Each structure stands twice: as C-alpha cells, then as structure tokens.
Amino acid sequence: MKVFGGSAALLQLHLLSAISQHGYLGVQGFSLSPFSAKTTAISSAASSSKIKTLLQATVEKEDATVTTNNAPATTTTSGNTPPFKNIMAANRAEIAVRIMRAATELNSGTVGIYVAEDSYSQHRWGADRSFQLEKEDSASPISAYLDIDQIIQIAKDANVDAIHPGYGFLSESPDFAQACGTAGITFVGPTVDNLLQFSDKTKARQAAIDAGVPVVPGSDGALQNAEEVVEYVEKIGLPVILKAAMGGGGKGMRVVRTMEDVVPLFEAASSEALASFGDGAVFVERFVDRPRHIEIQIIGDGTGNVVHLWERDCSVQRRHQKVIEMAPAWTLSDELRQQLHQYAVQLTSAAKYKNAGTVEFLVDAEMRAYFIEVNPRIQVEHTVTEEVTGIDLVQAQIRIASGATLEQVGLIQENIVPRGVAIQCRVTTENPERDFAPDTGRVTLYRHSAGYGVRMDGIGYSGLEVTPFFDSMLVKYTVRGSSFQEAVARMKRVLQECRIRGVKTNIGFLMNVLAHPEFSTGSVTTSFIDENPSLKQTSLSMWDYANEDQSDPQKLYETERLLRYLANLAVNGHPPELGADPHKMEDSCHVAVKAPVLPTTLKTTKTKSAGGMRKILLEQGPEGYAKAVREHKGLMIMDTTWRDAHQSLLATRMRTQELLRCADYTNTALANAFSLEMWGGATFDVSMRFLHECPWDRLEKLREAVPDVPFQMLLRGANAVGYTNYPDNLVFKFCEQAKKSGIDVFRVFDSLNYLDNLKIGIEAARAAGGFVEGTMSYTGDVADPSKSKYNLDYYLDLARQLVEMGSHSLAIKDMAGLLTPTAATMLVGALRKEHPDVPIHVHTHDTAGSGVASMIAAAEAGADVVDAAIDAMSGMTSQPSLGALVANLRHTDLDTGIDLETLQPLNSYWENVRSMYGPFESGQLSGSSDVVNTEIPGGQYTNMLFQSKQLGLGEKWPEIKRKYAEAVSLHACLIDDALHVFYFCSPFQLCMTCRATHQSPMSQHQNIILGDIPKVTPSSKVVGDLAQFMVSQNLDAQMILDQAETLAFPDSVVNYLKGDIGIPPGGFPEPLRSKVLNARGAEPVEGRPGASMPDYDFEAERKFLEDKYGPTNVSNKDILSYALYPQVFTDYKDFAATYGTVAKLPTGVFLNPMKVGDEVEIELGFGKTINVRLASIRAAEGDGTRVVIFERNGEAIYMSVTDHSIVGEEALREKADGPGQVGAPMPGVIVGMQVKVGDEISEGDAIATMSAMKMETSIPATTGGVVKRVLVNVGDKVEGDDLLVEIE
Fold first, then answer.
1. Partner residues linked to 244 by β-bridges
2. For the CA atoms of the chain, what is the radius of gyration?
3. Can you tell me whether residue 215 is helix, strand or coil?
4. Three-state DSSP state, 372
5. Residue 828 three-state SS
6. How do residues 1081-1098 score in pLDDT, each as one tens digit?
7. In the beta sheet, which residues pair with residue 301?
8. Chain-wide mean pLDDT for the chain?
9. Fewest CB atoms less than 10 Å from the CB: which of 223, 628, 1083, 1229?
10. What is residue 38's predicted lDDT score, i.e. its pLDDT?
C-alpha cells in the first residue's frame, strides 16, 4: 500500500508552493498542471538541473498514466446502470442537496426527509420524492432528524435501498448504520465496526496509539461525570480541552483554563453533545495552544486498501468550528506532509476502513503533529478536495457502498495529485460583531455568485425564513485557482458579487480574513480569529476594492436600506412628527419638477461671466466687498428662497434636490445679487431631524453648483445654529468649517440682542474670514412714541456697538414683519446718517402684508440690500415678492439690475415645487395683520400653526396666538384694584381681560410672564413653547404666576429663566424667575452663559464617534453636528443605518408612498440607477407584520414591515386620574426616564422628559413617595393624560 504519491506528487507540491509564492501560472483545463505532457516551460523556481531531471521523469510517468487511465477518476457504472435504485439523503439543507445531485448523476432516484420547519427547503422540493418527519409538539425540529426508527420506516416504505447520512445528525451513529443493515438498506458510509471505533473519540485515540500515530495526552476513555473530569484535570494540569466523545463540527467542545471553569464547561459541553449527537459523553485532552489544524481526506474500500486525497488546512476557526478551508495546505514542508499522509493511511488501513473519512491532526509551533480524531463521514469542506483532485467524493462514497473497489472506482494513489489551490468560505447567518450570535428572520434578497472557478453549495432564496432551529450555514462557496493568490482574489470577488440581505451574515468577517496580511501567507493557527478581534468589527472595516460601494460596509447595503424605507412608507405612511398632511399627498409617486432651462442668450452671457458678485468678495475680501456694496448703483437683493422662504411657508421641509435642480439657473439669473440666504438657522437641524440629510452635504453640493453668488447663513451668535449656548471654541470651529464648506456672509444675531453673545459670533465669523453682518433683532415700533422700550435710540446704540465689534455691515432683522414703511424710513435713515460707509441690509417678513412697501421705503432711506423671495415662495409669513420689487424699481435709481423676464422660468419652477410640497403647507391662506400685536416671527408663525395641529390644538390657533402675546408682550395694570391685561403699554388699549378700553397711568403697567423681549430663535421658541403649554393646560398669566413652583414648564422656558440663552433687555421677569428656579433647585447663570463653559473636547468626541461609527465614517463636520445636536445627530445616523441615504430618493417617492404597481427609477450615483417596482403588500401576519415585495431591476426583494396601525390598536394606555398618578401633559414622545420602580422621590422631582416637535418638557412628580409603577419606556409615543408613573 503506497502512502503518498511518490516523487512526482511531492515534486508537484514543492513546485506548487513555489508557484503560489512566485506567481507561476500553468493552466490546463481548470487546474494547475505544470507536469502535463504538453508542458514546455516551468517557473524559474524549478530551474536547477536536478528539478529538471525529476520533472522529466514525472512527465514521462504522467504520459504513461494518461495512456492507461484516460477517463476521469470517478465515472458512472457501465452503461446507465445505477449503483442503487433509490438513495435517501438522511439529512437536510445543503448536504442533502449535494447527495441528491450525486445520486441523480448516477441515475439513482432520490428521496428526501424534512420537518415542517423545512417545508420550503430545496432538499424537500429538489428530491424526486420527499416525506415529512413527525415529532411531538414540544420536541425540537432537530430531534426528528435523529429519529432512527422513523427514518428507517420512511425508507422502507419508499423502497429506498441506500441511505446517505451526510454530515452531522446520524452520520457517525453506529446504531443508525446497524439499523440500516437490519432493514436491508445499504448505509453509505463506514461499517458499523468503523463507526464504533472512530465515532467514539476515545476509541479512535486508542486506535491511533496502537497504530503508532502520535496523540495529544488525554483521558483513555470518556469521562461520565464532573467529578471524574475534575480529578483527571487535576492530574494532567491546565489548559485542557473537553470534547464530545461522539460527533464533531465543534459541537460539545470547550477549552478550560481555570479550575473554576471545569465543572460549568463540562456541563455545557456534555449538554451540547447530548443535544447534537444523542450522547453526552466527554473526554479530556491537553490543550495544544496556537496549532494549525490539518486534516487528511482518505477513502477506503473495506479491504485494507486506502488512498489519501491529500490534505486540507482548516486552521481558520471560531468556537472550534471551521470557517475557511483550503486544499492543499501548500505551505507545509514536504517532510511533514508526507508524514501526515502516512499516519492517516496507516491508521485507517489497519482498521480496514470503508468509505470516506478524514483523519485530523494538530501541528504545533515546532511542527510536531498530533492525531486528534477521525471523522468517519463526509465533511463540510470536502468540496475543496474535490476541486483540486477532480474527484467526486460523494459519488465515490455511493459506488464504494455498492461494493466497488478503489481500483474499480478509479482511485489509484499515483494518479491522485492536487492541481491548483481551492478555498472554501462558509457563509453563515451570524453577527460577527456580537461574537457570531446567530441571526434569524427573512432573507430579503438572495443572489448567488458564479463564474469561472466558482462553486456554490447552498439552498438559500429570496424570501427564505431563517429559523433558530438549525445550523447557521446558509451557503458555502468554493473557488479554485492556479495559485493561492489567484484563489484568494477569486473568493474576494465571489463575496462581493453575492447578495444576501435581510439577515446578518459573516460575509464582512470573511472579507476581513481574506484581506489580512497573516492570512495571505497561507499559514495561520487556530488562534488567528481570537488574536485578531478586529476581524469581527465588520461595520468599521474598509476593503481595498475598485468598487467603492463594495469597499465600504456603510454603502454595501444602501439599496436594501432605501427599499426598507419605501416599504415602511408604503405600509405606515409618514410619521406624524414629519408634519406632512396625508390628505394633501399626491396620488402618484412619479411627481417631479423639471429644472428651468437657461435661454441661449443667458448661456452666452454666462460663458463670458466675470464670476458675479462673489468674485469681488473673493478677490477683495470682506472690506473690499463692503466698499463695493456701498458704491453699487441701485438696490441689491438677497434672495431667501433657499432658506427663510421655505422655512416660513413649508416648515423648513425643502429637500436639497429641489435646490440643486435650479442651482445652475439661479447662479446665472441672480449673478449680481448681494447673496443667497441658503443655510444656517433652522435648516441645519431640520435637515437631519426630518429630511434625514446632512446639512454640510447640502452646503457643499450647492456651493459647487453656484460658484458666482455669495452664500449667506444665519448665525445665532453664541448659539451658532442651535437653541442654547455652546463653548466658545465650538462656535469658532463651526464658523471656520462653514467658511471652508462655502459660506461667504455670516448674518450674526442674538435673539435677545445680548451684546456679549453677539460679540462671540462676530469674532468667530471674522476669524473664519467671512463677511460679517452685525444684526439687530427688531421688535416694537420705532415710529410709535408710546413703545419706549425699543425706540430709535435703542437701535442706534446697538448699531454703534455692532460696528465697534468689527461688523462689515449692519443688518436689521425684522422677524415678524413689524417694520412699517414709516419705521423703516426712520430707522434706516438714522443709521445711514450715523454710518455713511457701512452697508445696511434689511430683512423682513410679509405677514402683515406691507413687506414690499417697507423694503422700498428702506431702500429710499439708504439701505443697500433688502431681502426678497421668488414670487412663488413669497408673501404671507415669507419675504416680500422679488418680482414685485424688481418690477417696481425698474428704470429708477434703485433698479435692482435683475431681469424680470429671466425670473419667470425660475418662478414657474418654484410654483411647481411648492405644489409638490403641498403636504407641508400650514393651511394659511393669507397674511395676518394681527402680527403687529402678537409679534410672532414669520417662520415661527408657520411652525407654531404646524405644531398646534400636531398636538391636536389646531382649533385653538387663535387662542394660541393670544397666549403667545400674553406670554411675552402683554402688560398688566391695576384698575379699580383689578388686574387688567393689555397688548401694549400705552394710555388707551383694548383690555384683554374685560374687552373694554381703559385709560390708566403708564407708570402702573408691568410686563407679565416672560417680559417684553425680542422674539427670534431661540427666544421665540421659548415664547412659543410656553404659549402652547398654556393652551394645552388651560392656563392664564395669573395661574402661571400662582402655580410656578409645580407646573411642568417646557425645558426651554426653564432654561431661559436660568439665563442659558443670555440676559434679556430689562432683565428677567420677577417673581416668576425666582419661583421657577427655587422650586427646582436650579442656580441662575451669571453673565454670558458660554463664558463659564469649558472648551469642547473635540478629540475626545472624535474618539467616541469613531468607536461608534468607525474612523472612516466620521468627519470633522460630523463632530460639529454632534457637538451642536448630539441627539439629533445620533438619531440621524441611526436612521441612515436603518433606511440609508434617503436624500437619494426622488422627492416624489420620498413624499408620496408607493402603491402596488408603481415603478420608479432611483439614481444612486453617477452612472448607477435602479428600477424599483412595488409588486405587492401581503396581508398582515399574526404579529402585525406585512411582507412588502419589490422588484429591483426585475429581481424580487422581500421586506418585512410592522404595521403600526395594527400593533397600535393593542397598545391602549391607562389614563392618569388619581392621586400619585403622573400623566403626560400633552401628546409627545418620551425621550428620557429619570426614575425606576422603587425609587424614593420628592414632589417636583423630574420623573421623565418628553418631546413634542422641538419642545422638550421635564415632567415633575405630583407628589412625594416611592415609585410603584413605570408604564412607559424611552421612545414611546403618548397622548395627553396617558399614565406615565404611579407613586405611592
């Protein structure tokens, strides 16, 4: 009996090693064959005369072999006579299918068995006949596949004459083999004696010792209980490995390193072995640290005649289960390889082994080999051996079981030589980042890899339901190549090409392994995975692939994420917080607006353009630009369409797509505009919060598309673009990045006109190199002498200080449209007289209807720039009409220089866009002149109307407006010992208390609640939150003062009273402030809030975000977004992780849920488009989920979506209606819980935080005591009076 393939085979492996390292390729058919009779050249590595001599001898020998053995190693029997009439695959899934394919090729009939959980599996429907295994309801599905009696009976009934057990389950069971024999059925596997000897690891160990094969020191037999195991471990010392006496596949194995772990790990190993193999016996071996795992494939015919089919390297393992295997182990020395082959054949020949088996060894660091076990069955990894030898092992098993000898099957040792290298990867439904925890669920998409040198063994399909009952392997890919490097490259391609979506897989982990430099050497140990934990961090990996979408795991599943969003939208519609009116949705998702087309004359002009106004700013700097603006003939315009206009009319819901589509036209039509207001303010957080877009991405894309017009942003002073104060270094860093990303002009304001806050913003914008507009937040009426608080002197003094701070321009920010033509003339005229060289810029809202008149008056009084919006986006709470200003100033000294005709295509475009965004319209049909009393800012007017409807307060909108005024602008005086409330402090006013006109001394008037403050974000938010709170709780001013200690004020109100956004003109309202702060134990902020804040630690936050999202997925801009809005940014990232970059979706699809039959085209990137059709939405299942089926480029994709309307019906909440019960003050979402059951709390302690739109409210305990019940979790949606916490 020859143990190995002689000098020819050894020389081939020697050269194969050199070829794998040096890249020699010699391909004949599919495999490496440098020894073919037709080979005329060899690699330089084989250039010595000795090697040439050996090669010549080998070639001659192969010529002789080819002459006498021209046929493949395994062939069918003569003619078409099958070895068996019917062959049963007593297994499931991939291996059962593999057996059936081999049987079919041999012309045998196939029979399958399955349990109910496998009803849709290919091994059921792929068999000629299949039969369901019965089991008790309480029994596991696996138990049915271990039911010998039932399987034998099915086989007999189906006239089966051979059973192939596959691997796992009963494949190593002597009892099963015996039962087959007793029933007159051939067992396709080893004999009963072979199984008795080798399926029992302790007996196999003894056989190895008897055959002179070295073994790892260990117990002589199985140990039956924990006491025996402890006694033996104490005898041989640690570390040891516990192994199931029966079975394999890593089941029932545990490494023990401490005595404390011996008993629990023994119990775990024994229990797992019992469940997997029906036998809980365990034996003990000394643990060999960091070995290589090499196994030899053998096959015998039961006469003592055994051949080996070379070796496999199975060292890449986790939990003792193989993950990646290769054949041959090309880095082994010839001496060690020959020794292993000899050991394997020596052991199995002595046992007269029949059929296929694997002899497994550990090779330690000193290259010493130790026998560990014989697996008396086919192995999962048999495919790599088949690929390099060309031998069908399963067919060989069947033919030998039928009585053929090795020679009859064509298995002659001298002819069995490996050609090339094969690698197998097992794709499992496991999550590597959770230590390979199994994942279950529906496979939404399943697409195989294929192509040259690729083999697939698997049973997956789109829609497959992965259950927790069976092994997690879904498919195994085997590739072959003429060298190791070629095989690795091919496997990388395979893993990129396959698509398995809907469940977690280990594909990313496999790609990490293939890319690891240690793996590329072809020599790793079984500790490789444990020593490289970064291999498991798949979401943070980056791979060096030409296709960038395949290189970044964040982009890898982008299409599926987008489809998940569309599926959820189709089932559940938009979430209420988005604010889209479902009744205004379009019937079709194909709604789109074409970009305006530049006339030929404008294209010519554009070609000759000198770069617009921005060129002056870039070349001459802020000071030069200020001079150019002052010298400019005519009135300059800032177009607000891209920011404040849609903020005011559409709740800031405008997506970037619509801005980009008209960017080229806008760049030309408004090339001589002062600037485009397009960023900052509410657009920053709303982009992330509701549109799920990156605000920085918007800025940079628009900057690239509009190179000629300066971009302006709204900077809230020390509040940057937030609603609170930030550390100074954060504000500076933000402005620096904004300038780099494309902002030219910073309009810096403070909601309270607080100079210290303004100064920080101005200094930060100047340091960034921006053009700075020092801005006054306008309130009151300078033309009304009775409104003495905010008179002309107030604004002139403020302007002086803004100029002294370094402002390049002065801006008037009239948030509510209070600036009448008369007031505009007075204020602008006075400013122009005092600051003749400083540009003046006026901003207003048209809520009161006088916007165009006021802007013309301002221009005539000396303003250089006024704000306007394209006609279709103007009026009401937006800015005045751009077209109206252009038309009314034509042919005058104030001519804007903008061509009215050129604006028309742009206006038509925006008319269509606004129609598409109809679901976000507030429902306002006209302006509102009462804004002169309520002073509600234009943008907030729309937002509050929006929020009111969200909170179910739409019918109370007039009351909310009155409460807004009451919260901040109303005044009170005592008349006849009664409190009377007026809109403004003047001698004659309509009393809001008795609805009559009174006359009283002005000295008796006092501001109530928050005080008469400017109202612009974030101060306007404070006022708006309080107004809606008052309406929802049915409170008036007196009640607010009386109950200040116990009311659950919105957080914004409490923070304002603390001083978190600065000091208001005239100071804080008392005694309200003291009552609110004292009841909460809150300390007031002294001075500028940001002055006492430590610097923001950018490096610490960078590390935090990189650890969470991966170093390549965190930019400086991301850190800034997180610093300004930590929760909003986190939610934005979480949303993207679930639903992808929805900014890529066409707006028609983003806004309007798809209906069955709808088909759309989605552009994922340049040259990358997909067609998506909604094929069907299935009826709801028992758990409330619906399966949504899309066709992506004609390929079915299944998405499971929870139908919230069904689940919600089952989730009715209790209402708070008794003592100690704390209810929700209004509808909203719970965003924080401060207590748990058993906590002792005092009255007034915060028990939870809830959010309604942007308003967060801390909910106080209504009484002291112990928390008895907590009925909500973070993220829960609640309605007003829903019971949150019960206290006793």
1. 282
2. 40
3. strand
4. strand
5. helix
6. 888 988 888 888 999 999
7. 354
8. 85
9. 1083
10. 30
Q: What are the structure tokens assigned to 782, written together?
A: 């300078």
Least trusted range by pLDDT, from 50-59, 125-134, 1085-1094: 50-59
State both tokens at 898. Answer: 């903008």
Q: Which H/E stretch holds residue 973?
A: strand 971-975
Confidence of residue 894 (pLDDT cuts 50, 70, 90): very high
**Max mean pLDDT range (343-352, 842-851, 967-976):** 343-352
The SS3 assignment for 817 reads coil
Cα-based distances in Å from 1041 to 844, 854, 1061, 1073: 34, 39, 22, 10
CB contact at 8 A, 1251 and 1231: yes
Peptide bond into 727 cis (omega under 30): no
Contact residues for 781 (Cβ-Cβ < 8 A; gap 6+): 787, 790, 818, 820, 823, 932
- Residue with tokens 């063994």, as numbered in its chain: 457
Catalytic residue (one of 377, 426, 653, 1186): 377
Count other Cβ atoms within 10 Å, centred on residue 576: 14
Q: Give the HSE-up count for residue 235: Cα atoms under 13 Å, Cβ half-sphere.
A: 11
pLDDT tens-digit readout, 73-93: 444 444 578 999 999 999 999
The confidence score (pLDDT) of residue 924 equals: 72
Tokens standing for residue 1136? 């993207």
d(CA 369, CA 321): 20
**pLDDT given at position 334:** 93
Tokens found for residue 164: 């192939």
- Please tell me the predicted confidence (pLDDT) of residue 28: 29
Q: What pTM was computed for the model?
A: 0.73
- Averaged pLDDT for residues 291-313: 96
- Amino acid at residue number 1203: D
In 918-1045, where does DSSP find H-type helix? 931-934, 938-950, 957-968, 1019-1033, 1037-1042
CB 539 within 8 A of CB 432: no
CA dihedral 204→206→209→210, nearest 10 degrees, is -100
The residue type of 137 is: D
Q: Which two tokens stand for residue 691?
A: 């549109």
Nearest alpha carbon to residue 810 among 863, 740, 889 = 863
Q: Please tell me the predicted confidence (pLDDT) of residue 740.
A: 98
Pair type for strands 240-244 and 254-256: antiparallel
For the chain, the farthest-separated pair of C-alpha atoms sits apart, in whole angstroms, at 127
Structure tokens at 512: 């990490």
DSSP 129-149: EEEEPP--TTS-HHHHHT-HH
Residue 991 confidence (pLDDT) above 70: no
Q: Is 614 a catalytic residue?
A: no
The torsion angles phi and psi of 5, rounded to 5 degrees, stand at -85, 25
Cα 753 from Cα 758, distance rounded (Å): 7
Residues 937 and 813: their CA atoms lie apart, in Å, by 10
Closest CA to 323 of 545, 97, 528, 533: 528
One-letter amino acid at 57 equals A
Cβ distance 526 to 288 under 8 Å?
A: no
Kindly write down the DSSP assignment for every residue of 339-351, as one continuous string: HHHHHHHHHHHHT
Cβ(471)–Cβ(247) below 8 Å: no
Q: Which CB contacts under 8 angstroms, 24+ apart, belong to 224-231?
A: 224/281, 226/262, 226/263, 226/266, 226/267, 229/262, 229/263, 229/266, 229/282, 229/284, 230/259, 230/262, 230/263
Measured between alpha carbons, how far is 936 from 957 in angstroms, rounded to an integer?
A: 13
Contact 97, 122 (CB under 8 A): yes
